[in-house]
Amino acid sequence: MKKLLMSIIFGIFLLLGACGGDGGSSEEPADNGGETVDTSEAEAIYKENCATCHGDDLTGDVGPDLTAVGSKLSEDEIKTQIEEGGNGMTPNLVEGKELTTISAWLAEKK
């Protein structure tokens, strides 16, 4: 039973694996209705709410690696994961405009 649970958790962590920055400009285009993502704002939201579990560099710690999560999940899927939580993740850690910003930023991580 433990192996099954760990396999499920590991699978979900793999699905969420892409959140690292590329050191580019502070605003990057995103697939969020034609708006741009303020990278510095997204990084601040990430460090405040996500880094404890996903690591300062998005490579994972308690939570999965997010360095390429955008290649596995769409912006809407990332947003849903953040809203609903599950598999050890607390739901609604980020809401409103911050949720939109962090989801769009994570979706860029390919």
Please characterize this protein's 3D structure.
- The protein is mainly alpha-helical.
- The protein contains five helices and two strands.
- Strands 1-2 form a two-stranded antiparallel ribbon.
- Strand 1 and strand 2 form a beta hairpin.
- The chain starts with a helix and ends with a helix.
- About 13% of the residues have low confidence.
In short:
By secondary structure, this protein is mostly helical. Helices cover 46% and strands 5% of the residues.
Say how many strands there are: 2
| Rg over alpha carbons | 13 Å
Helical amount = 40-55%
| Overall geometric form | globular
Structural class: mainly alpha
Low-confidence stretches: 18-31
Task: Give me the secondary-structure topology.
Blueprint: H1 2-15, E1 27-29, E2 36-38, H2 39-49, H3 51-54, H4 75-84, H5 96-107
Helix pairs in contact: 2-5, 4-5
Q: Any descriptors?
A:
5 helices; 110 residues; 2 strands; mainly alpha
